[in-house]
Specification:
Blueprint lengths: L2 H13 L16 E4 L2 E5 L12 H14 L7 H5 L2 H14 L3 E5 L2 H10 L7 E5 L4 H10 L2 E5 L4 H9 L6 E6 L11 H10 L3 E5 L26 E5 L9 E5 L1 H10 L1 H4 L6 H16 L2 H19 L11 E7 L1 H13 L2 E2 L2 E2 L9 E6 L6 H23 L1
Parallel strand pairs: 2-11, 4-5, 4-6, 6-7, 7-8
Antiparallel strand pairs: 1-2, 3-9, 8-9, 10-13, 12-13
The structure holds pyridoxal-5'-phosphate.
C-alpha cells in the first residue's frame, strides 16, 4: 500500500464535504454539553431517556467496579462471565418477552453474530437498503447471497424471495431506522417471512427503552419468538449504558452461545457496565413518565416544525431528521446552529444515500419545552435566510 493513495482519498473526502471530525465533549453526556469551552444544547445524542449521566447509573457503575473489578479479564466462555452478566441476560429476556438473551459488548458485534451465525455460503440474506451499516456489513461478510430491497417496500422483497434459490433465508430490518426515524412494518415482515419460510431478524436499537407499553420496543411484546426469531438491541442508546444483546428462544440463544464467534472470541464487557444497565432497566420500569415526556417532546417538536414549514421527514420516534439534500447545506446549517448554541450533527453519505444529507435531530426526555421551541425558532430563521439567499 502506498501512502499517496491515502493522502489522495483524504483529500477527496475533504473536497466532497464529507470530512468527519468528532466534536470533543468537555463534559458528561446530557442535554447541556460543553464544547470548545462553551455550553450548547444537545440535539444529537441517542441518550433518549437522559440516563447516560444519571447519578444512579453512575453509582451502580462505581459500586459494580468496587465489587467486580474494572475489567472482566476473559471471554464469557473462559472465565469472564460474572453474576451481573447473568442477571442482565435474564432481565433483557423478560423485557423483550423472550426465553433467553445473550449480551455482547456492542450492537455492531451483536448484529454480526445474529446474521453470520445463521447464514453463510449457499444461503440468502435479504435486507432493507437503509438498514444500519452493521447489518449490511454482516450480510456482505456472511458469504450468503446478499439482496437489498427498496426501503419498506415489501412487495419488492416478495419479488426477490420468489426468485430465491435453495438454502436458508434470512430477512433483516431495522425496527426504527437510525437515520430516518421511520419504522419497519413488523406485521408485514412476519407475514412475508412465514409465507417464504424465511427467518426474520429485527434490530430494535432505537425502539428498546423508547417504544412499547413498558419500553420493550417495537417487537418485544406483540410478536413472538416464533414470528421474530432474532431480536437485537443495544444498551448504549435509550438505556444510557453500553453493550448490546440478542433475544430469542432458548434453542436460538444456546446455539449462539456455542457458535457465535463474536460472543466467544472477545473479552466480556466489564460486569460493572452490566450493573449500570441493570440500574437503567430498574429506572425504565419505575419511571415510565420519562418515555411519556419524550414522546410529548417529539409531538411538540413536530407540530412546531411543520407549522414553520421545515422539511421534516415522516417519523414518530425521537429521531427527527430534517432533509436538506446537499452536503454543504447540511454542514452550513449544523455550523450556524452551533454558533447559536445548539449541537446538531450533519449526516452525510455514505451514512445516508447520496443527495440526502440531513440534520439528524434527536429528542431527549430531559429537553424542556422551551429548549425544543428555541431549536425550532433557530431552524425557522435558517430557512428564512436560505430563502433570501436564493432570491438574491
Ligand atoms: C447504533 C446502532 C447499532 C450499533 O450499536 P452499538 O451498540 O452502538 O454498536 C446497531 N444497529 C442500529 C440500528 C443502530 O442504530
Amino acid at each position: 500500500m502506498d501512502r499517496s493513495e491515502l493522502y489522495q482519498a483524504l483529500a477527496e473526502r475533504k473536497e466532497q464535504q464529507l470530512w468527519r471530525q468528532p466534536p470533543v465533549l468537555e463534559s458528561a453526556q446530557g442535554v447541556l454539553v460543553q464544547i470548545e469551552g462553551r455550553e450548547v444544547i444537545n440535539f444529537c445524542s441517542n441518550d433518549y431517556l437522559g440516563l447516560a449521566a444519571d447519578p444512579r447509573l453512575e453509582e451502580a457503575l462505581i459500586q459494580g467496579v468496587k465489587h467486580w473489578g474494572a475489567g472482566s479479564g476473559a471471554s464469557h466462555q473462559v472465565c469472564g462471565h460474572q453474576r451481573p452478566h447473568e442477571q442482565l441476560e435474564e432481565r433483557l429476556a423478560a423485557l423483550t418477552g423472550r426465553e433467553a438473551a445473550l449480551t455482547f459488548s456492542s450492537g455492531y458485534l451483536a448484529n454480526l453474530a445474529a446474521v453470520q451465525t445463521f447464514v453463510g455460503r449457499g444461503d440468502q440474506v435479504f435486507q432493507d437498503r437503509l438498514n444500519h451499516a452493521s447489518l449490511l456489513d454482516a450480510g456482505l461478510a456472511s458469504g450468503a447471497r446478499f439482496r437489498r430491497f427498496h426501503h419498506l417496500d415489501y412487495s419488492h422483497l416478495e419479488g426477490l424471495l420468489k426468485q430465491a434459490g435453495s438454502g436458508r433465508r434470512l430477512l433483516v430490518s431495522d425496527g426504527v431506522f437510525s437515520m430516518d426515524g421511520d419504522q419497519a412494518d413488523i406485521r408485514q415482515l412476519v407475514a412475508v417471512a412465514e409465507q417464504h419460510q424465511a427467518w426474520l431478524l429485527i434490530d430494535d436499537a432505537h425502539g428498546i427503552g423508547v417504544l412499547g407499553e413498558k419500553g420493550e420496543g417495537l417487537v418485544g411484546d406483540p410478536f413472538t419468538a416464533q414470528q421474530v426469531p432474532l431480536l437485537t438491541g443495544t444498551l448504549g442508546k435509550a438505556l444510557g449504558s453500553s453493550g448490546a444483546f440478542i433475544a430469542g428462544d432458548q434453542v436460538v440463544i444456546d446455539y449462539l452461545r456455542q457458535f457465535a464467534r463474536q460472543y466467544i472470541y472477545t473479552t466480556a464487557q466489564p460486569a460493572a457496565q452490566a450493573c449500570a444497565t441493570l440500574q437503567a432497566l430498574d429506572i425504565l420500569e419505575k419511571e415510565p413518565e420519562r418515555r411519556w415526556t419524550l414522546l410529548q417532546r417529539v409531538k411538540s417538536f413536530r407540530q412546531q416544525a411543520l407549522a414553520a414549514g421545515l422539511p421534516l421527514m415522516d417519523s414518530a420516534t425521537p429521531i427527527q431528521p430534517l432533509m436538506l439534500g446537499s452536503n454543504q447545506q447540511a454542514l452550513d446549517w449544523s455550523q450556524a446552529l452551533r454558533d447559536q448554541g445548539f449541537l446538531v450533527t450533519a449526516i452525510r453519505p455514505p451514512t445516508v444515500p447520496p443527495g440526502t444529507a440531513r440534520l439528524r435531530i434527536t429528542l431527549n426526555a430531559l429537553h424542556t419545552k422551551e429548549q425544543v421551541g428555541l431549536l425550532v425558532e433557530a431552524l425557522a430563521e435558517l430557512k428564512a435566510q436560505d430563502r433570501e439567499g436564493w432570491n438574491a
